[in-house]
Amino acid sequence: MKKIGFLSFGHWTASPQSGTRSASDVLLQSIDLAVAAEQLGADGAYFRVHHFARQLSSPFPLLAAVGARTSRIEIGTGVIDMRYENPLYMAEDAGSADLIAGGRLQLGISRGSPEQVIEGWRYFGYQPQEGETDAEMGRRHALALLDVLRGEGFAAPNPRPMFANPPGLLRIEPYSEGLRERIWWGAASDATAIWAAEQGMNLQSSTLKQDETGEAFHIQQARQIRAYRAAWAKAGHARTPRVSVSRSIFPLMNDTDRAYFGRGGREGDQIGDIDNMRAVFGRSYADVPERLVEQLRGDEAIAEADTLLLTVPNQLGVDYNAHVIESVLTHVAPALGWR
User: Fold this and answer.
1) Domains held by the chain: number
2) Whole-angstrom Cα distance, residue 20 to residue 22?
3) 181-203, pLDDT tens digit by residue?
4) Residues in domain Luciferase-like (predicted)?
5) Which domain holds residue 256?
6) Residues 314 and 26: beta-carbon distance below 8 Å
7) CATH value at residue 258
8) Rounded to 5, what percent of the chain is helix, strand, coil?
9) Which of 15, 77, 97, 172 is the 20 to 30 Å CA partner of 161?
C-alpha cells in the first residue's frame, strides 16, 4: 500500500495555449485540484516553490486555503528553498497553516534548486556566513526551523508585557503539535539523505539525483533510500520515517491522452549538469495501463518508497489533471498493489 498524491510546479504563462494564464489562475486552480484529488481518493496535494518565476512561490497562503477547503488529504510542499527563509517567521506561518488544516501539513524543505536570478536569496536579505556556502546556509536555516518547531521556550519575556504571558521563556506561536515530525528534506545526493535521517526528517527524492555511480536513475535512487533508512535506524529515532519519490505517469485512456502523451514517455534516463552537479534525470511513463503496470513494476525506487507523488502538467487545467490522477488510482495502482 502506498500513499499517492500529486505534485504541481504551478506554472503560468499568458500564452493562449495555457490553462493558467495568470498567478491568480494557478493559485485558484491549485486549490480546486486539491479538492478534486481528495474527492477521487488521492492522499496528497503537494506544491513546488520557486522564486522570481511565473510559478508558485509563497506557499503558506495556498496551503492554508487548501486546508480550509479539504478535510482529509495531506497538504505539502516539494520543496521550499531554505536559503530564502526566515526560520522563525516560517514556523509561525507553518503553525498557522497546519492548525487550519487540522494537522495535515507535510512540509518538504531543502537547499533548493538553481533559481531564476543569480543568488536570489540575497534579495531576500540572506547571505552565507564567512566560510559558509549557500547550501550550508540553507541547512543552517533548516536546523533553526526544526529547533523552534519543538515548541520549547527560548525568548525572554518582557517584564511589562502588553498582554499576560505564560510562565517561563516564550516559544513561537501558534504552535502546532506534531508538525516537527512532518518535515521532509529534499535530497539530491546520498550524503544529504543520510544527513536528513540524522536530523529526524522524512525524505523526499524527486525525478533527478546526483549521478554518483553511473547506474540507472531508479537504482541509484533506491540505494539512496536504503542508505537513508539505515542512517535513520542508526540514529535511534523512535518513529518510522516516511519516504516519497516523484514520477511523471500518464495512462493513455482516450484520444486526448494520446494527443498529449501518445508519443510515449521519456523512456530512458537523461544525464545533465545542474548547478555544477552531474545529475541523472529519471524517465517519464506514458502508455496504456497494462504496459504501464509492467514498466512501473521494475522501478526499484518506487518499490522502496511509501509515498508516490505524481507530477502533473498544471497548465492543462483542473479537469484534465483530475482525470490523470483518477486514471492512475483506478487503472494502475490496484494492479501494482498500491491500492
Assistant:
1) 1
2) 6
3) 999 999 999 999 999 999 999 99
4) 9-257
5) 3-336
6) yes
7) 3.20.20.30
8) 40, 20, 40
9) 97
